């Protein structure tokens, strides 16, 4: 009698598992139909969830650091800030407020401003 109950429970469990796995496959097929192509994925910016277009950090930082006394150091710091904040201020210096608190509040370990 106990063996019969165990067999029935095992079959019931097997049916449930097969039903769940088939539902998962159907959902995955539906998700694939709803996805955007990889080249048109939106970029979400921080907590405010604004959609941002991707920017060319290398080019923007190259022009920002073109007249800097230490251009390699400037480009490295600018690149980090650009990737994190998705923004590079216009011009070769100043205008840091243009990119908001993310850019102006980022500091080094020595509490100096990080972003050029």
UniProtKB/TrEMBL annotation:
<keyword id="KW-0732">Signal</keyword>
<protein>
    <recommendedName>
        <fullName>Snakin-2</fullName>
    </recommendedName>
</protein>
<dbReference type="InterPro" id="IPR003854">
    <property type="entry name" value="GASA"/>
</dbReference>
<dbReference type="Pfam" id="PF02704">
    <property type="entry name" value="GASA"/>
</dbReference>
<comment type="similarity">
    <text>Belongs to the GASA family.</text>
</comment>
<feature type="signal peptide">
    <location>
        <begin position="1"/>
        <end position="22"/>
    </location>
</feature>
